Amino acid sequence: MNQEFYTKDTRQSLQELKTNENTGLSALEAKKRLEENGANRLQSAKKKSLFVRIMAQFKDFLVIILIVAAVISVIAGDGLKDAILIIGILLVNMIISITQESRADNALEELKNMSSPKAKVKRDGQVDKVDSSEVVVGDIIILDAGDYIPADVRIIESMNLRVDESALTGESMSVTKYADVILDKETSLGDRVNLASMGTIVTYGRGVGVVYATGMNTEMGKIATILNETQEASTPLQIKLNAMAKALGIICIITCLVIFGIGFLHGMDLIEMLMVSVSLAVAAVPEGAAIVATVILAIGVQKMVKSNVIVKRLRVVETLGSTTVICSDKTGTLTQNKMTVIKVFDVENAYEVTGTGYSADGEVVAENTPISKNISLMAEIAVLCNDAIYDKETVKIIGDPTEAAMLVFGVKLGKERQELDSRCKRVQEIPFDSERKLMSTYNLKGGKVVMNTKGAPDAIIKRSSRVYLNGEIVTMTEEIRQKLIAKNEQFAALAFRVLAFAYKEYKNEEEIDNLEENLIYVGMMCMIDPPREEVKDSIATCHGAGINVKMITGDHKITAQAIATTLGIMQEGEEVLDGNDLNNLTDDELTEKVKNVNVFARVSPEHKVRIVDAVKSSGNIVAMTGDGVNDAPSLKKADIGIAMGITGTDVSKEAADMILTDDNFVSITKAVEQGRTIYSNIRKVTSYLLSCNIGEILIILVAILLGLPVPLVATQLLFVNLLTDAFPAFALGMEKKESGIMKKKPRDPKETIINKNMQTLVILRAIFLCAGSLSAFIFGLNVYDYNVAISMCFFTLVASELIVSYSSKTETFAGFTRKLFSNKFLNISMSLSFGILVAVMYVPFLSNLFNTVPLSLVQLGICLGLVFIVVLGSEFSKKLMPKNIEKSTVN
Question: Which residues are annotated as catalytic?
Fold first, then answer.
């Protein structure tokens, strides 16, 4: 197909693409085209093959040495069995590592897909939202400010449409797009003003386009034959864990070299000492900690999806646990975002409006006076100056809930959108702007052009010079102006969302001046958006967790104060700052103000950035919500940017680190709780692994220093490492939240994962593991023989490490009373691990492989007694830790 659609008019383009401007494609035809042309995606870099992943497992220097040592032992003539077993254990380790890596990759890929942009397409005459990957050639796409353009489109309708094409052309200025122009064939890509390309952003206005290219056939696809998607950088936690693993790895290797040297000096078998030393190094180096952390993070963020949170960047999970301030928008996040018009006001009288939600059932009720003409005209302006879509049959909306409520109100008065649009065609518009707080459309009506304007009452009243009074137009006197201002404040004090409506007439289109001045005021519309019932408790939970909540809204000061007081964000008598107040404050003054002020009203996007900067300057970790195009700077400025999944624009979702799929503040609180739980679980796993690894090193080191034989052979060391890393460690990562986790102070982001508490706990646990296992070995050596001794040592060490995992469920002393068996994953892994341990001890074939002998009941009883002492010591070690863990509720 010839794709030079910039050289063709809209009618010819629609014909060639075999589509209809009014109805779009049928669902059946769209499905057929999707199957023929494939998904609308750019080709990404190929994933690592299984072979590459396998080879990566054998690049480790210590693993190579161990394999070489195994080969040497075979050549020496008596190590074939051990060599085969060592290779077998390494292969099992490899399978587990590859499985874990693949699981983490798949989890992250799922999250990436969940946060992909949506597209508004017209199919079967209805506008619907679909995944951008499902867009096909011929689809009619609705474009609004903040949308990512999902494919290459020919513009067929435009209203002040401007597009940021910097991602494609490098041009920083937004380009105005036109539907009616036809260009020469030689026109360069950057000058094709009747086209819009995949991956660019609508920054202003609105438009409609027909898709002529998808996927790799788009301009973006031509530039990058293969798009190598940037892999997400390691999180700070992963970097810390990798650095810790390397540092401890060096210590472990040096220690193992010392063990090898001492053993050599004591005249021990060279090959045996080499095998033991290298096996110990392989087992003891905690290189798996970062992998475990990645899997726990990935699985944790998948769980967050069930709590209506999509995490786009893993680093956010760590930051959530450190969050000290949440700056939240009001509408939809703290409130229900189910707008209903419940009252209207002309200039003299207020009228009740019946009905709830988006149902068209209801009417305007007048008690002692007939309904003025203002109300009917206001409904007409509200419907014409509107970009939402409302289907009264299915009670379904697409677009802004406030605009949807206006359409519902219009239907109640017989003002249907479709009928009005056909009778009063829109010829131009001035989109809503948070600075002006207004939106205007120009519609043809009775041979004239009428500018219909809606917006904040204070802005409308200020710009109105006349008043429509029941069919007559009178001058806006100062008395009327003050009356309207007072009425607006009265409505706002009742926590109503108030909008005002006005108009202005022109003789023809040539007279349009794009000036929203000298308006004719018509009336006010009051909507109720009640607070979410569950939010008040959620805010109280945040306060208990040491997290301050601030409301930042574009609404009226009095409305914001009423909602904030109801929800417990502020107390009676506390200060509220509005945009004018912020303009009069220096940055230093604002930094001091934000320490005590929790409600900000009538703010612009620039104000939001200043507020975030001011809060952060006091050392706070800030989470910020946003949904509009202009919220992107403040979302990026915050430590955690949170976009709205329902009402949020594509731009805000792209800039954000997190997306709330239900636009509910409660989901933020749940995400903080989940983030704290995930970080806590990673600490538990790290503490557990380090305790076990250091304990194993101490067992060999102390035995060699005491002149004892080697208490564990190479295959046993590798087996212990395999068993503890594979099952209990990952099961600990699935631990549920500890009670009281939201009654602790936010974590200091500068705190190292191995803080004083963990250092103390790791060392004490390692000492108990060493003492218990060596005691079993020495007892067996003195009372029985070497084979029994290493078997008792092996059983005591493995059993102790497995049961200590239950003690690792919490960092505070619990005396095994804290829901000991609440983690089903740990219970299953424990049962499985003990089953394997018993098999290794008592199944002849396996006991022969791992150099163990079956233990008698007496020997087993002694081992279990020592295990009990080790576990008891591990639990009571917590009482010796420095008191850095906050246990009390934070006020």
Answer: 329
